[in-house]
Amino acid sequence: MKDLWRAVAHFARLSWHVDRRRLTTGLGLLLLGCLATPALAVALKHLAEALLDDRGPAAVGCALVAALFLVAELMLGHFAHLHYFELGELEEVELQNRLLAASGGPDTLERVGTPEFADALHLVREEVVRTRSALEAALQLVAIGVQTVVTMVLLALVEPVLALLPLLAVPPVLMGNRAQDLVERAKKRSAEDSRRTRDLLRLATAPGPAGEIRLAGAGPELGRRQAESWRAASTVLNRAQWSAAALRAAGQALFAAAYGAALLITVGTALAGRIGLGDVILVITLMVQISTQMTTFLGLFGTLQGAGRTLRRLAELDTAAPAPAEAADPAAPDGATPARLAHGIRFEHVSFRYPGAARPVLEDIDLEIPAGTTLALIGENGAGKSTLVKLLCGLYRPTSGRILVDGTDLADLDAAAWRSRVAALLQDFARYELPLRQTVGLGDLRPGTEPGTDDAALADALARADAAAVAAALPQGPDQLLGKGYGDGAELSGGQWQKLGLARTLLRPAPLLLVLDEPASALDAEAEHTLFDGYGATARTRALAHGSVTVLVTHRFSTVRRAERILVLADGRVREWGTHEDLMAARGLYAELYTLQAGAYV
Ligand SMILES: Nc1ncnc2c1ncn2[C@@H]1O[C@H](COP(=O)(O)OP(=O)(O)OP(=O)(O)O)[C@@H](O)[C@H]1O
């Protein structure tokens, strides 16, 4: 019930705020249409009485009035709809915006990765489109409420006990409500399997992995798993639907029994001579109308309950998972991001564990990266390199310990301000299917500027990312639409997308932190060489101008050795730390790996 009131209050408030004239006109027309229904029953009563008394002109007049009420009943709803359908669409857009904010808005990524968050997101995404009709349902509910009160008064005037009939619609409504609860709980229980069903279908039909899936012959196996998840989800849902149907049927049987009893009372009262044929016709017409009202009521109730649940789930998205672990200071961030790094970035006994994970990924990382330094991060797959980089970007918060930026805890800096000073190309970078200049231009979103319109800055970033040739080879140059998802865009190779991602990173104005997480993984050897030559110059300029720290994650030692500091991570801990010369002299893991890789090229 709370969900229903939440929905009514939310949509009424929003519509009032958006366009109160449309709202009141729509509601007024709906009310008139709904009042025409019992009025029609009254007109029919008088028509029957006029016919019985042989009053011809009165009968014709009543017939005309009845026809008028019928037209009003049928037509006014359509005109009302014209007034509020747009409001309904605006409300759906508002919910979509809230959904976008909820899924992309959190400052850090801890909760985005949790199954609870993914399940809630899946359900809201599926449901949000259905909220379009919620405003209409809320208005109709009000109109039907008024209609029911008028019907009850008319029935009471004939025979007081009959006024109870609309109230007997309450148990079926409550049972219908309980039935819907069963279905919703089943939906929640099966959300993970539903999500897997959808994701596997998407994987099996997406163009990207199609080649690998064909080569591996994995299609049937994916199909089998998809069918398995679908079966698991639909077993839970079917069972709930059967129980819900039984509950609804029981409620409706109760109402049908009351309906039959009311009919008998009416017949008995008529036979006793207490009411005439006109009243019998009035009561029977009103009873038919009540039965339709109840069915409509149940439908509207369901729509509004659903919309209320969507609103609740949207609110739950903010609390679906644990809050970022132990922020250093729970108070609002108040530290200002420095204009220039004077000292550097310090990891102070930093440990990190992903939410729900049994063990930490990073443990007791304690080191100082002086301002202006280029740091290379190496380690085996899964050693924690990307995680460390994401902590630096402020995408996760340490579970314990602190990351200090010029002495201020990163958790105390305004998250948006810090991110605006971070230029990062992460491993899972985005492939924006937009015109090339916008794909790159998204790297600089300063207010008041249109992304990608500064030709000189764009050309400079493309050149430094070794991507000028990518743009030059496209039929429409930087204005070329990229990707095959929309219209006739140009598809790029993995390496070309990566170069554009890098150009986007390089467009970031005045970064204090530059992060490249395996920026050359899709590049050929020559492109990699050109990239790092160009990138070294960029890092030096940024270091001089802003004291920027550059962090490179790479498995290529020819690149690593050029860095001023090298961090070797193993099992989430600092295994070695120093310059290339220090680490070679130490003859540890770094020296061993370096020698091995250098040997491979001899
Ligand atoms: N979102 C996540 N949730 C839970 N665990 C994660 C998540 N991302 C990574 N991990 C785990 O954290 C560990 C470190 O992952 P990370 O990506 O930091 O390693 P990496 O050193 O960058 O590896 P690679 O060289 O393969 O890129 C891995 O064991 C991984 O399974």
Automatic annotation (TrEMBL):
It holds the Pfam family ABC_tran. The keyword ATP-binding applies. Residues 26-306 form the ABC transmembrane type-1 domain. GO terms for molecular function: ATP binding. SMART domains: AAA. SUPFAM superfamilies: ABC transporter transmembrane region (SSF90123), P-loop containing nucleoside triphosphate hydrolases (SSF52540). Residues 345-596 form the ABC transporter domain. Keywords: ATP-binding, Membrane, Nucleotide-binding, Transmembrane, Transmembrane helix. The chain crosses the membrane at residues 57-76, 134-155, 253-275, 281-304. It is found in: Cell membrane. It comes from the Bacteria. InterPro entries: AAA+_ATPase, ABC1_TM_dom, ABC1_TM_sf, ABC_transporter-like_ATP-bd, ABC_transporter-like_CS, P-loop_NTPase, Type_1_exporter. It is a multi-pass membrane protein. The keyword Transmembrane helix applies. This is ATP-binding cassette domain-containing protein. It comes from Kitasatospora phosalacinea. The lineage of its organism: Bacteria, Bacillati, Actinomycetota, Actinomycetes, Kitasatosporales.
